[in-house]
């Protein structure tokens, strides 16, 4: 047997490069991406050693090295010293998306974006559940398998509520999901193929970063300014590479608080239309109609999706969200949801939507808006003179640290004083450098006085001389 035949016999994966009209290294990467999608190559599977594959394909080792490097750049594979190059699998990723707080016992937690635990919450839900249990017709309907989108009655009630909040929608456009995070995952899983690229602001919601990694997507960071994503930077990126979907939080970016004006929204839609991008607007950090700009699905209904969740309005444990999508994308989204779980549990959806749309919920939600605004005013007072970006309806504020503070030191020093904060790292897309800033959530403390105490301790700390605290001790 000659060298090529011997090498071919030993290669468990052999791409066919014959007839490709692109350079060989490129054809090899394209074949790799196609085989990952087709399942011929499994997550975690090792690629043939470079020399062996070069012999098998009768190309230079340099061609294979270039191809493997390009595949790594596209997020298809991961190279590790000593264990070769493997198809990327979610388990290779370092988890950076922690939902639950890492706050120490007794610490003042300013690290989580959660609704204020309202004293009437449990009582209200009991009333809603009792009403529901006394309606055998509704309960009976909830016991049947529903459509993947969720029952028409639930979607109509939710669409009506959203319309009254200045987000006009109809039931046909909605899919009920298990929270906003699920809507995010569903959209990306159904509409973007492994190896394809999605883009977002360079600092974004960690759940979006985690979703991209789980699904083997390439996540491209778009440079941002005070209004968020910069359209000219997006245009440049789209000219350089194919981007399938752009993730947006135009009202109140989590974490930077950036808010997009109307002209910026129109400029982004123009780029999206030029390069055929899907737009995924995450509206989970909900704001009042009076402070909201035009949602992207109103500007570009043919390509924009919108995510809603009750998590920040009522309670995260309800796990009820919704995805608004254009009709042409609906079959792919419902097929993905069917494959996952068929549909959201209708009984839970019904209870959450009944609560949201009930007369009881209105004063509770109103109370929260007022309390959040008061807490933001308190934050502005306690941290007067510091560079802060906040929104009157925002659960968090973004504090750019004064020189010479570094975020890692402030987070460590605050923890010593019993205050838990997050720096910018968990929000950074890829290996972007993290700015020296911290996110301060105003909602986790049940009592406003406790927030006051946390902010007072932080303000005092920032008056001191930084003392470098090693993150490793
Ligand atoms: C921007 C954003 N999207 C989605 C989520 C997740 O929402 P849910 O709890 O409804 O899954 C959060 C939670 O903080 C968020 O901030």
TrEMBL record:
InterPro entries documented for this protein: Aminotransferase_I/II_large, HTH_trans_reg/aminotransferase, PyrdxlP-dep_Trfase, PyrdxlP-dep_Trfase_major, PyrdxlP-dep_Trfase_small, Tscrpt_reg_HTH_GntR, WH-like_DNA-bd_sf, WH_DNA-bd_sf
SMART domains with a match to the protein in the record: HTH_GNTR
Key words, A-Z: Aminotransferase, DNA-binding, Pyridoxal phosphate, Transcription, Transcription regulation, Transferase
GO molecular function terms listed in the Swiss-Prot or TrEMBL record: DNA binding; DNA-binding transcription factor activity; pyridoxal phosphate binding; transaminase activity
One Pfam family matching this protein: GntR
Domain HTH gntR-type positions: 22-90
PANTHER family assigned: HTH-TYPE TRANSCRIPTIONAL REGULATORY PROTEIN GABR (PTHR46577)
UniProt record similarity statement: In the C-terminal section; belongs to the class-I pyridoxal-phosphate-dependent aminotransferase family.
Name this polypeptide is given: PLP-dependent aminotransferase family protein
């Amino acid at each position: 047997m000659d060298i090529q035949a011997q090498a071919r016999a030993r290669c468990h994966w052999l791409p066919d490069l014959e007839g490709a009209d692109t350079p060989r290294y490129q054809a090899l990467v394209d074949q790799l991406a196609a085989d990952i999608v087709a399942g011929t190559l499994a997550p975690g599977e090792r690629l043939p050693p470079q020399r062996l594959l070069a012999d098998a394909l009768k190309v230079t080792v340099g061609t294979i090295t270039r191809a493997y490097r390009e595949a790594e750049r596209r997020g298809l594979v991961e190279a590790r010293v000593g264990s070769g190059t493997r198809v990327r699998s979610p388990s290779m990723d370092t988890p950076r998306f922690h939902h639950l707080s890492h706050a120490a016992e007794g610490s003042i937690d300013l690290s989580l974006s959660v609704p204020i635990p309202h004293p009437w919450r449990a009582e209200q839900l009991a009333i809603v559940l009792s009403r529901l249990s006394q309606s055998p017709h509704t309960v009976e309907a909830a016991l049947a398998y529903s459509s993947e989108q969720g029952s028409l009655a639930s979607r109509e009630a939710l669409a009506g509520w959203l319309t009254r909040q200045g987000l006009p929608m109809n039931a046909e456009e909605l899919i009920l999901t298990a929270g906003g995070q699920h809507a995010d995952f569903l959209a990306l899983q159904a509409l973007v193929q492994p190896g394809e690229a999605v883009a977002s602001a360079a600092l974004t919601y960690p759940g979006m970063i985690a979703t991209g990694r789980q699904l083997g997507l390439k996540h491209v960071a778009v440079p941002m300014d005070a209004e968020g994503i910069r359209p000219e930077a997006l245009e440049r990126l789209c000219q350089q590479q194919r981007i399938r979907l752009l993730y947006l939080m135009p009202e109140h970016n989590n974490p930077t608080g950036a808010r997009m004006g109307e002209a910026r929204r129109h400029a982004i839609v123009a780029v999206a239309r030029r390069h055929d991008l899907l737009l995924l607007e995450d509206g989970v950090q909900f704001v009042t109609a009076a402070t909201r700009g035009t949602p992207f699905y109103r500007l570009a209904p043919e390509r924009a999706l919108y995510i809603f969740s009750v998590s920040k309005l009522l309670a995260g444990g309800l796990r009820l969200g919704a995805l608004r999508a254009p009709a042409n994308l609906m079959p792919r989204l419902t097929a993905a949801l069917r494959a996952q779980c068929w549909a959201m549990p209708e009984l839970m959806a019904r209870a959450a939507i009944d609560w949201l749309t009930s007369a009881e919920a209105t004063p509770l939600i109103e109370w929260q808006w007022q309390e959040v605004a008061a807490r933001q005013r308190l934050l502005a007072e306690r941290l007067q003179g510091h560079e802060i970006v906040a929104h009157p309806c925002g659960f968090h504020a973004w504090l750019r640290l004064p020189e010479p503070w570094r975020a890692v030191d402030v987070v460590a020093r605050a923890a010593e004083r019993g205050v838990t904060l997050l720096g910018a790292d968990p929000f950074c897309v890829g290996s972007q450098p993290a700015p020296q800033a911290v996110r301060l959530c105003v909602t986790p403390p049940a009592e406003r006085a406790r927030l006051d105490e946390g902010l007072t301790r932080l303000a005092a700390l920032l008056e001191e001389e930084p003392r470098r605290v090693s993150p490793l001790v």
